[in-house]
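Each lists chain and fold; for instance:
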Amino acid sequence: MSSTTFKPVDEQLAYLKKGAAEIIPESELRASLEKSLKSGTPLRVYLGVDPTAPDLHLGHTVVLRKLKHFQDLGHTAVFLIGDFSAMIGDPTGVSETRPPLTREQVDANAKTYLAQVFKILDPAKTEVRYNSEWLSKLSAEAVVRLCSHYRLARMLEREDFRNRLDKGHPISVHELLYPLLTAYDAVSLKSDVELGATEQKFNLLVHREIQREYGLPGQAILTMPILVGLDGQRKMSKSIGNYIGITEPPADMFGKIMSIPDDLMWTYYELTTDRTPQQITALKQEVSSGALHPMDAKMHLAEEIVSGFHGPDAARKAAGNFQRVFRDRQAPQEMREVHFRRIEGGLVTEVRREGILVPLVVSGSKKWSQVLQYLEEIPSVAEAERVIKQGGLEINGQIVTDATAKLAPDGACSYEIRLGKKKFLRLIVE
């Protein structure tokens, strides 16, 4: 590769520092970039991810995007799937020994990762590796030699371990091996730079030190902040439920992004879009001056994010749907549609249960509370009645607060139903 491929070092650094929490040390990254520019040799930059769950959320993409930035600058992006290390489990941030994953679980999760990762990285320019390539081949002698390069006292300085020791919680020996075995990834890959989240800093520093023990220069480290979830307080997590999945439908992604607190959207602009710091500052000034409404700024954000995963047409459609439903208070153009036929003593339709269409009969009084529960739009009749009394049911543009309200007793009719703020349903009785 010719040196003319690379931009000037100052320009590269400015691009790479956007949103970064820390570069350790920045002087070494600069020196590596200068050497790369002079020699025309791209840096080897890697991100290791353990496939502990089958899907990724927006928080995972923060560091993935930084790997893409290195890729954009002409460097070699290495995406490492920790299929071996996932069976040990990263002890970062956990308060007790986590149950190990089986090989079958890891393999199933790993299969879904690449399709999602390649929504961000260029597959033609990405080197994909699995750490079982070398870790599964390490002999007992090699593992003992690896362990000899790091002191136990240093390992127990780690905050996660120290807190567990202080509280009398157990620590298994295999957890101490995790940062050492993943450090061997850096040795095997001969990486110049490793990326990770701020909470992984301890592991990344171990990796850098072990590289040096094996005669390598020692990689630079770039950490990225943790993305705060929809609640505006805790890190984005599926277990908490405050996440935005990158494979979610466009309308769902758009709606979730619009639900974040206004002051959080600037962090999202910085960490999940390609807007420059100058562009983000200009947007902030527009909002603070009153020239741009915060909701409009957030809609621009949501459209950019959705476009990155589903394309501009889907993003525009999601934005139009949000405008129609939440700002103009109209029903969405597309919604779930259920057709009922009248039969003696009630109504009948077909619903999908576990992938199979089965008949559903709504008999008796045909109260709205009963219909909504039968269609699984709400867990129980009692809950439906509570929602109705609180004004959470709107039928054909009119709020219904009578919990005993019923469908029309006979004849064909059509209802556009709004349940709460986000659920819409078109019910057609024939």
